[in-house]
């Protein structure tokens, strides 16, 4: 057809068939000819570019060129040569600081529903700690020696024998006749008990406080079964303790007794305290692994001996000990 008519090939012609069979032209990126932007950066399995080279190049470009904004738009850019080693050192220091910020341990979260108890058990000595019976002990032992025809001992000499129970002490002084002299001591002790003051008021309040707060309380004494029962009955302390551990004639057994009680109560030694007035008490506490608290408020207290035995705490006032015990056994729920 001539003129400006339709120049398209008629349907069914050879030209039309070729046009229909031609493949559509697609973008090179769709065919995989060009890598994606993320593949250049090393993602999706592509081989990443060396990180060290990227880092060095970035810092080299930033360190060598001065800022155009500072020099003005028409100023010539001056380059300052910076050694590559210095750039890498600065980068490593910056990386270490970055890691330190991210690896810094966060503070522990507060426990809001658990009660905190500092002391889980309190153990006491008897003579010179709960009751002021040392004078009676000295006098009864001296009179028993006199009744046996032996040479009397001074208070200091009798105190030096402390450790084993009274039968062990008597065995050391009278190796041959101790069995006949021991009943005389029991009689004198029971006769002199009414002359003793009552339980130290602050210590009575401490026992009541522990019972109210349901803190396990024990008595670990060097006395024999006989004199320990006499003392508890006389002072009205029969029901004041959850357990009573008397002494032994063989020597000091307070450390094993403390461990035995804590194992029975299933408590850790570091959560318990033993309160006593003697250096042997402090040594026993250290051996058992509990807190060693020296009681220096009663008659005949020896503060220097407690210090030499490395007592963890020394109280010269029973009221001070009561205040400390109140704070260490108070159940506090953190807010």
Describe the overall structure:
With 335 residues, the chain is α/β, with parallel strands linked by helices. Among the domains are: 156 residues, HAD superfamily/HAD-like (Rossmann fold), CATH 3.40.50; 62 residues, DNA polymerase, domain 1 (Orthogonal Bundle). A 6-stranded parallel beta sheet has the order 3-2-1-4-5-6, sandwiched between helices. Helix 11 links the parallel strand 2 and strand 3. Helix 8 crosses helix 9. The longest helix is centred in the first third of the chain and has 20 residues. The radius of gyration is 45 Å and the shape is elongated.
Quick summary:
The chain has 335 residues and is α/β, with parallel strands linked by helices. It contains 15 helices and 6 strands. A 6-stranded parallel β-sheet has the order 3-2-1-4-5-6, sandwiched between helices.
Tags for this entry?
Rossmann fold; 335 residues; alpha/beta; DNA polymerase, domain 1
CATH 4th-level superfamily of the domain at 115-132 and 198-335: HAD superfamily/HAD-like
Write the H/E string, N to C: HHHHHEHHHHHEHEHEHEHEH
Q: Poorly predicted ranges (pLDDT <50, ≥5 residues)?
A: 37-44, 63-71, 97-117
CATH topology group of the domain at 115-132 and 198-335: Rossmann fold
Topology overview:
Layout: H1 14-21, H2 37-40, H3 51-64, H4 68-71, H5 84-103, E1 121-124, H6 134-147, H7 155-160, H8 166-173, H9 178-192, H10 201-212, E2 217-220, H11 225-234, E3 243-245, H12 254-265, E4 272-276, H13 279-288, E5 291-295, H14 303-308, E6 313-315, H15 318-328
Parallel strand pairs: 1-2, 1-4, 2-3, 4-5, 5-6
Helix pairs in contact: 3-5, 6-9, 8-9, 10-15, 12-13
């Amino acid at each position: 057809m001539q003129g400006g008519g339709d120049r398209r090939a008629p349907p069914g012609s050879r030209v039309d068939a070729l046009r229909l069979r031609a493949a559509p032209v697609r973008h090179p990126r769709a065919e995989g000819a060009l890598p994606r932007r993320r593949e250049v950066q090393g993602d999706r399995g592509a081989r990443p570019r060396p990180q060290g080279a990227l880092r060095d190049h970035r810092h080299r470009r930033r360190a060598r060129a001065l800022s155009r904004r500072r020099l003005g738009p028409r100023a010539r850019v001056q380059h300052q040569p910076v050694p590559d080693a210095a750039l890498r050192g600065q980068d490593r220091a910056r990386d270490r600081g970055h890691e330190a910020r991210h690896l810094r341990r966060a503070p522990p979260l507060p426990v809001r529903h658990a009660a905190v108890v500092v002391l889980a058990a309190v153990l006491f000595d008897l003579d010179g700690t709960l009751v002021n019976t040392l004078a009676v002990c000295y006098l009864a032992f001296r009179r028993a020696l006199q009744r046996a025809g032996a040479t009397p001992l001074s208070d200091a000499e009798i105190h030096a024998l402390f450790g084993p129970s009274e039968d062990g002490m008597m065995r050391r002084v009278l190796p041959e006749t101790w069995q006949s002299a021991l009943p005389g001591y029991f009689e004198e002790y029971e006769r002199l008990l009414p002359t003793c003051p009552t339980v130290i008021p602050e210590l009575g309040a401490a026992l009541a406080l522990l019972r109210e707060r349901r803190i396990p309380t024990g008595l670990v004494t060097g006395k024999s079964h006989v004199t320990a029962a006499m003392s508890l009955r006389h002072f009205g302390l029969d029901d004041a303790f959850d357990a009573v551990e008397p002494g032994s004639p063989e020597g000091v057994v307070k450390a094993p007794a403390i461990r035995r009680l804590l194992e029975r109560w299933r408590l850790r030694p570091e959560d318990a305290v033993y309160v006593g007035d003697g250096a042997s008490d402090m040594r026993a506490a250290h051996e058992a692994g509990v807190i060693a608290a020296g009681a220096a408020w009663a008659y005949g207290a020896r503060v220097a001996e407690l210090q030499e035995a490395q007592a963890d705490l020394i109280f010269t006032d029973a009221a001070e000990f009561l205040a400390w015990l109140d704070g260490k056994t108070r159940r506090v729920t953190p807010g």
